[in-house]
Amino acid sequence: MGNDTHKHKGQRQQLIDALRAKEIHDELVLKAMNAVPRHRFLDSSFEAFAYRDAAFPIRADQTISQPYTVAFQSQSLRLKPGAKVLEIGTGCGYQAAVLVEMGFKVFSIERQKSLFDFAKLLLPKLGYRLHQKFGDGYLGMPTFAPFDGIIVTAAAPSVPQALLEQLAIGGALIIPIGEDTEDQVMHRITRSDESKWERESLGLFRFVPMLKDVNRGG
Ligand code: SAH
Fold first, then answer.
1. Residue 185 to residue 169: CA distance in whole angstroms
2. What is the mean pLDDT of residues 91-104?
3. Does the CB atom of residue 186 touch ligand 1 within 6 A?
4. What is the CATH number of the domain that holds 169?
5. I need a surface site. Which of 22, 42, 103, 164 has the fewest CB within 10 A?
6. Which of 87, 112, 175 most suits a substitution to test ligand 1, by most atoms within 8 Å of the C-beta?
7. CA torsion angle for 97, 77, 211, 132 (degrees, to 10)?
8. pLDDT mean over 144-160
9. How many domains would you assign to the chain?
10. What is the mean pLDDT of the chain?
11. pLDDT at residue 2, rounded to an integer
């Protein structure tokens, strides 16, 4: 169990076709998602469903994002290989793996120790190299800023100021904004110059909340 078999590859190709039908057209995203073995990120009890376009529970009351959501956020970055990307909310590490596979230099933050530890072990085992931090995503990673792109994979009640400041000029922050009791609006916030950010709404999504207290809860 766990190996990447012909069956997994076939299921993955079907998932890619389904994503294409849902207007994911960035070939870099589709190619990356066709390469990442999503079944390795799930509990073995969910392995059979790994290539359905659905979210699933992972440890610590969190979820692995739906493939469509991962594809949508990755595509919304509009970046080329070599770009520097920060992810908030590593979770089990699937989105991070997709970003590495797209050729980005990836940095990812997770606030729950059990998930941080899980992804820290799994990603290198699958051959994915990135910088992982255990800490509070609201603070970003100032030492490695600026970033060409930032993806937040949990619902934020408002836009964290530190993340706006850590964007490179021309860079984009992809973030679902709203309370966790309702759907959130995905936003792309592009930094057009030193003191100017432009906001676009990209549609409704549903995420687990971005939480404030490090090392608490879950
Ligand atoms: N990117 C993941 C999605 C994980 S769900 C994937 O590929 O499937 C969202 C994650 O955000 C959870 O693991 C949660 O613990 C984490 N999270 C919530 N608040 C956070 C914060 N303030 N800083 C960092 N991570 C946070």
1. 23
2. 98
3. no
4. 3.40.50.150
5. 22
6. 112
7. 40
8. 97
9. 1
10. 94
11. 65
